[in-house]
Write a structure and sequence with these properties.
Layout lengths: L1 E5 L25 E8 L4 H15 L6 H22 L5 E8 L3 E8 L19 H11 L3 E6 L5 E8 L6
């Protein structure tokens, strides 16, 4: 996976505003945006999960174990979806991690134009509920997720979770 680190300001919509008196001036040491690219193959799922976990640890992002587990589950589901459903039209995918003072956002981008929808739970099926799972993990953590079209005609699916736990 290639790592393309970027600047600081990539706030997810719906993440709320940070009150100036609640945080020191300037970015915190763990804030930033990192982007990894990988081929749309099965081996990229654990590679993406490990890359995100290692990044959170290396940057010393103040995440709880539960939040890390949720983020890694989201990354696994989103990369798996890109590999299974978009690889034909999108042989490469990108995973982006954006960390702010009070939130962390993970996203997976591919060049397939199809916009997925979350399916309802069908206990007879063995798959097809990844996006539903992503939405539930985000909701239970007090976060948000969405699917957006890219300017190149593909899509990016993202989830933003607060660094401090939210009671639902």
């Amino acid at each position: 996976m290639e790592n393309h680190g970027r600047g600081f300001d990539s706030r997810p919509e719906g993440a709320g505003d940070v009150t100036p008196d609640r945080r020191p001036p300037g970015p915190l040491p763990y804030e930033g945006v990192w982007r990894f690219t990988a081929p749309a193959i099965d081996a990229s799922v654990p590679q993406a999960r490990h890359a995100v976990r290692d990044l959170l640890f290396r940057q010393q992002v103040p995440v709880s174990d539960d939040l890390v587990h949720g983020l890694l589950l989201i990354v696994s589901e989103l990369v798996t979806n890109a590999v299974r459903h978009a690889a034909l039209l999108s042989p490469m995918l990108a995973v982006e991690v954006a960390v702010g003072a009070e939130w962390v956002r993970v996203s997976v981008e591919d060049n397939h134009p199809y916009r997925p929808t979350a399916l309802e739970a069908d206990h007879g099926q063995t798959g097809g509920r990844g996006l539903l799972l992503v939405r539930e993990v985000a909701r239970e953590s007090g976060g948000v997720c969405d699917v957006e079209h890219t300017t190149s005609g593909g899509k990016v699916i993202w989830a933003a979770l607060p660094l401090t736990p939210s009671i639902v």
